[in-house]
Amino acid sequence: MNTSKNPEVNNINPGTVISGKWNKHQYTILRELGSGATGTVYLARGNGTKVALKVSRDSLSITSEVNVLKHLSKVQGKKLGPSFIEMDDWNISQQSIPFYVMEYVQGDTLFSFMKQRKDEWFGIILIQLLGDLSDLHKAGWVFGDLKPDNLLISGPPPKIRWLDVGGTTMIGRAIKEYTEFFDRGFWGLGSRRADPSYDLFAVAMIIINFAYPSRFDKKEGGWEQLKRYIERDRWLRKYRNVLYKAINGKYQTAQDMKDDLLSYYSKTTSSVPTPKQPKQPKQPKNTHRPSNRHVHVRYQQKKIKKRRGALETVLIFLFMFAFYAIYLIGHM
Question: Where are the alpha helices (DSSP H) in 147-253?
């Protein structure tokens, strides 16, 4: 939704140079990255580096988002959102328009990233996302406008990053920005007051959106409609227990939802059967009594086979967990 009608904000042409009134830094606009209710974000170049620059008529929104970016940078030293660079004003047409500059995070959107990878990667990203949300909630904030478009996968190694922190809201306050499909209020399944379960509902809807890329329209809305779409899709049914709890606000913390997902993946990998050894052709019976040396050799061969089978089981288990075990150090 684009509510700003100011041409200086929404229609800055590539090549335009924005000069800061106070810090005197200059930024050349390259192209528009996105536009929302609080302003427009552009890709720009400043001091030889690509940056993201947000321009808005609403100075209060700009100040609020800058404060959010600063808080995110203090969450256990992690880079959850883009790094804040500076805030300034742009004088144009005898007017002063506020803007701020932040890190330009390069990577693929969540669903673009998944197009080239197996479904197991989606679980890895979900675990990362819930770990980061847990840290954000502990710091007293809710992301608010959580959706695939606001999630970027950078790397290597693949790391989830957040874009557009305009909807990030302090716990207890009214959600500032939201997208209807991912908003529990839209579905009649909760309020728009910021609390951890608000973000977790959005995570459940991201999982559903992955199964239904074009999404679906709200009809009667509510739990019954979402439940039907979950049960209709074979892949989604694997997540039904987690989805049911998240949609109905049963999770108190992101860590609880993360633990349930880890438990699900653990059960899935532990149920993988050990590959059967190919049948060996029957050997003719030896009428001669084997020597002690032959008995010892056969005993050693049986021990090796047992060890090999156990090793294969362990390797299968570790292989399934290796994807996220490597990238989740510090997030578990």
Answer: 196-211, 222-232, 234-237, 240-247
Domains and CATH numbers, the chain: 7-103 (3.30.200.20), 108-269 (1.10.510.10)
User: For residue range 320-329, what is the model confidence (pLDDT) as tens digits?
Assistant: 445 444 444 4
Question: Whole-model pTM?
Answer: 0.76
The label of the residue with tokens 């100075």 reads 59
Q: Tell me which of 132, 145, 164, 199 is the catalytic residue.
A: 145
Distance CA(113)–CA(156), nearest Å, equals 12
DSSP code per residue over 110-143: HHHHHTTS-THHHHHHHHHHHHHHHHHHHTTEE-
In the chain, at which residue ranges do the beta strands (DSSP E only) sit?
17-19, 26-36, 39-46, 49-55, 84-92, 95-103, 108-109, 141-142, 151-154, 159-162, 169-170
Is 145 an active-site residue?
yes
Summarised one tens digit per residue, pLDDT across range 103-157 is 998 889 899 898 888 888 999 999 999 999 999 999 899 999 999 999 999 888 8
Residues 203 and 146: beta-carbon distance below 8 Å: yes
State how far the Cα of 227 lies from the Cα of 223, in Å rounded to an integer.
Answer: 6
DSSP structure class, residue 312: H
